Queue: 2 jobs
Job 1
Amino acid sequence: MFDQIYLASASPRRKELLNQLGVSFVQVANDFDETPLANESAEDYVKRLAIGKARSALPFCEPEYSLPILGADTIVVLDGIFLGKPKDLNEAKFMLRQLSGHTHQVYSGVSLCYGDKSICQVSKSDVTFSQLSEQTIEAYCDTEEPLGKAGSYAIQGVAGSFVSSINGSYSGIVGLPLFETRILLEQMQVKHLLSSRLSPELLPQEGGR
Ligand SMILES: Cc1cn([C@H]2C[C@H](O)[C@@H](COP(=O)(O)OP(=O)(O)OP(=O)(O)O)O2)c(=O)[nH]c1=O
């Protein structure tokens, strides 16, 4: 069993979500080109990015600690078009106008890589936005919350009030799907809050109590 992993992400949201699972981890940077390939599906894209980010983090890890690396990626998709992180607030306004009054999909991929092995899961959610007035979009962009967020919004922030319904995974929309992440942790035998009760060192040792 692994007692610790690397989190190949600069995202404070992913750090917070992984903390919720009670995993001990060291946060490291990743360095991976996020340009989609021609005709790549959203599911293939987030899988490729989740694994690519984890693998690209290897040079940032301490060579003496050989641990699994977790990578993740989130993309917003509206009518088949990928909406990534906006380059500025003008692009954010453009994306929010498109999302207003429509249902879009949020795909989040999460991977755990160790040596040659990589395992990956994808979560897909449908998110419906109410109609947003131009004043609301302007006021929201003034907060700068859209920057650094796929689709130019953060459901965990004031933009949570734009969302009339979701069908899927709240943690997946925020950036790290907890259900899928726990599956990977268990497959890779990484210690977390629930597994610690079953970990071998807590079981009675051979030869007595
Ligand atoms: C849709 C949505 C996205 N997001 C964020 C999650 C991700 O951080 C970001 C999508 O960008 P990503 O490229 O997935 O991740 P990142 O560049 O922020 O971090 P890293 O590669 O270092 O792990 O959008 C929210 O915080 N809330 C939301 O509601």
Job 2
Amino acid sequence: MNGKPAISRTAVLGGGAWGTALALAALHAGHSVRLWARDAEMAAAIARGENPRYLPGISFDTGIETTTDLREALADADCVLSVTPAQSLRSVLGTVKPHMPPGIPLVLCAKGIERETGALLSSIVTEILPDNPVAVLSGPSFAADVARGLPTAVVVAAEDDALAMDLAARFSARNLRCYSSDDVIGVELGGALKNVFAIAAGAVVGAQLGASAQAAMVTRGFVELRRLGAAFGAQPETLMGLSGLGDLMLTCSSTQSRNFTYGVALGRGEPLEGRPLAEGVPTASIATQLAARHGVEAPIISAVAAILAGAITVGEAVEALMTRPLKHENTI
Ligand SMILES: NC(=O)C1=CN([C@@H]2O[C@H](COP(=O)(O)OP(=O)(O)OC[C@H]3O[C@@H](n4cnc5c(N)ncnc54)[C@H](O)[C@@H]3O)[C@@H](O)[C@H]2O)C=CC1
Ligand SMILES: O=C(CO)COP(=O)(O)O
């Protein structure tokens, strides 16, 4: 593994929970950090060591420089972390483009698939910023845990292994351990699809279907992830790792997960408006279409999309899943 690179200037795009936590992690890894938030009040709060809207009750070290000016955020940066929601990536990058220093890596930290096009986020970066190498950071990591300095492990993937190792070394610190990978697509897919399965697992809990059903849902969801991964050319081992199995374990069982709690509300029949960001919602419908396009069987993903679209109830989805034709377990 590469040694720690010299001090760097990291730009973080996004003043939400994850942007704040990653900015703090970069600061603790010894780097100079400038965070861009579109909201001036949020930027000022983060500079003061708090983010009451997205990380309530957590106070953290000051030292993160903040700005509402993208040009200022990107000036002199030698690495950019992109941490706004997946569905806003294309518009954010459009604004970033004129100010983006060429050649420096852009690390995607959002988890999702573009709803309108089915594009993986890395391909949007390549399309809009062809002169910047893309990397993906993913894995089981609640922002609140990272912001509190609790031990966490993630994976950073880039096509260029040396870049992945360099970034992993750059962001690793006492309580954040970054593994490296050259499987960008596998790491992206694991992060994007686990959100859909977290909604499914939450719905099982909300509808009080039992712990056995929850375990079955997560396990069979993992099969769908492996099938889609194979169709997209992901390495199977990647999906067994932090950004696949690891993040499924975390978000399909914890009420700290917004996708899981969204599913719980769905299963209880509670109102869904005004809830915190749940990336699995837009990703479910497009992942259903991608699965169909690739001839991949994905009944749980399609069921989540159909429930979210109001086409079927949670009860009807369970009935449909339980009465599918029987098959050999290892059919991928
Ligand atoms: N919160 C967490 O524990 C983790 C989140 N992630 C991923 O990170 C991404 C961001 O999530 P969070 O920070 O948690 O969300 P959040 O809801 O806490 O914050 C989102 C931030 O993005 C900003 N934003 C939204 N649209 C924007 C736009 N068009 N232009 C500029 N800023 C915009 C919002 O103002 C807000 O500051 C998501 O894809 C999520 O899946 C990944 C790992 C952990
Ligand atoms: O991705 C996450 C943890 O790895 C955060 O999950 P939620 O977006 O469901 O809160």
